[in-house]
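dumping the sequnces here before i forget
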Amino acid sequence: MTENETSVVMLGPRDRLIGELYIEGNLRVSGTLEGQIEATGDVDVTEAATVKATVAGREVNVSGQVNGAVTASKKLVIGRSGSIVGDVRVPRLIMQDGASLSGNVSMGPKVAAEFAQAAAAEAAAAPVEVAAAAQSATDGETAQEKSKPKKR
Amino acid sequence: MDTQHAVADTAPVEANADGVESRRDGSNKITLGPGDSLEGKLTYNGHMTVQGQAQGEFRITGNFEVGSGATVKALVEGSNVTIKGDVEGMLTARDKLTLGKSAKLNGDVTVKRLQIEDGATFNGHIHMGSFEQSSGS
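..and the predicted 3d for all of it:
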């Protein structure tokens, strides 16, 4: 509860996910992943992993193979054995010798500002929901109906 | 000004080329100091280090280095390319491109290996692996 209920999802070497995944927390992939993944926390793609997906996270570590666009709101680290084919959008990028990256790279303060703006917009939106929830607790059923359109 | 120096430096090497075979394969070196600037097209058999300003087209057989504080706006081709300053333009590293902490690079890059240190800024396209442009070298 104190950590805002973050979850950790791990996909082992023989696991496979095809589809769309959104997690409020961290993700660690060692298996196969296809589709779209977004994590509010960190994303780890280990050496054994094969990812054909757009990847979004706070801090993204790639030691395996990624085929798809990668965005990280904090930073992206591509390890020695890591390989990315796709466009990358990050405020900070660290690439170790031996790593491979093919695609378009956008980074720097401008991108960092964009992520900060998006985070601020989310933070601004969150208290409204909390307030609505608090209101619904006091007002009862009528407020519950009110909070529904606010969420849209 | 210092470009003349550099040329003067390398000239004797060529003059007594008989005795300095080892120096011919790559130990020639041009260094542009912090106050120096170069504008134009350069094809050079050796290494080059820029600490000042350089603009144009540089094809270097050896290593190309851009020091921190240096500004380069050019088409660059070299074996090992190390950047710690500001670079704008197309860049080809036949072997390895290294972006240091203070590096700022804007442009498209063709490299065999690439290393980026934390703090470096890069905007552009990365092409890794094969070389179409430098096949003649």
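Chain B has two helices and eleven strands.
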